[in-house]
Amino acid sequence: DAMVIQNPRYQVTQFGKPVTLSCSQTLNHNVMYWYQQKSSQAPKLLFHYYDKDFNNEADTPDNFQSRRPNTSFCFLDIRSPGLGDAAMYLCATSRTTSGRVNEQFFGPGTRLTVL
Amino acid sequence: DQQVKQNSPSLSVQEGRISILNCDYTNSMFDYFLWYKKYPAEGPTFLISISSIKDKNEDGRFTVFLNKSAKHLSLHIVPSQPGDSAVYFCAASSAGGTSYGKLTFGQGTILTVHP
């Protein structure tokens, strides 16, 4: 089945220790998104890739970076995690169609704990 | 500034009855609305959507109503089943421009359907 896969499902890191979360997709979608969701809050878009074009949200901290080496993979790098970065990180993909919003397909998420 | 709001954190319904989940938005540029369902330990999955050119969209037991003048939409589930128990997210987007289908989510409503 075509799907969005996130690894690991649970990640524990220490305060200030860099961490990388990964996302892969078999849907061959051209857009990939990274969301941060804190408890009882709405998922918040951090950035997205349209093909290789990176689009950062205005309020995404510089501490968060992303890489998309190819269509299938996208990585979220947190350079110096703080306690406030503990959250669920969701990866999503979609296929763009001009003038139309297509549904996004989500992975199961990675829950990040910062000690 | 929360552009999409789900003011009811939770809703409890008896099996077989109607579940009504509500969502309000403030951005008049939004012209496409989606509902996602999320089970624990899984990513959100697309449920149903509606374009602003319509005021109703129906898919089986699920119907979404849109009131543009009130900037309000609702999801009706009839009849409700215990398997519908999940967190429901409302999301909004704009089909035009270069937004690439970016979604703005509400905080979610936890639906519990009792047998």
Q: Can you offer a commentary on this structure?
A:
The complex is a heterodimer of chains A (115) and B (115). Chain A has strands at residues 4-7, 10-13, 19-25, 31-37, 44-50, 53-56, 64-67, 73-78, 87-94, 105-106, 110-114. In chain A, β5 (44-50) and β6 form a beta hairpin. Chain A is built from no helices and 11 strands. Chain A is mostly beta strands and 115 residues long. Chain B is mainly beta. Chain B is built from no helices and 11 strands. Chain B has strands at residues 4-5, 10-14, 19-25, 32-38, 45-51, 56-59, 62-67, 72-77, 86-93, 104-105, 109-114. In chain B, a hairpin with a 2-residue loop joins β6 and β7. Chain B is globular and about 40 Å long.
Question: What is this structure, in a nutshell?
Answer:
With 115 residues, chain A is an all-beta fold.
Total of helices of chain A: 0
How much strand of chain A?
over 45%
Give the chain pair forming the largest contact, with residue counts. A-B, 28 and 27 residues
Mean pLDDT of chain A: 92
Nearest-angstrom radius of gyration of chain A? 14 Å
- Can you write the helix and strand succession of chain A as a string? EEEEEEEEEEE
Beta-strand percentage range of chain B: over 45%
What is the helix tally of chain B? 0
The class by helix and strand makeup of chain A works out as mainly beta
Q: Structural class, from secondary structure content of chain B?
A: mainly beta
Low-confidence stretches of chain A: none
What are the secondary-structure elements of chain B, in order, as H or E? EEEEEEEEEEE
Tell me roughly what share of residues is in helical segments of chain B. under 10%
Shape of chain A: globular
The CA-CA distance between the termini of chain A, in Å, is: 36 Å
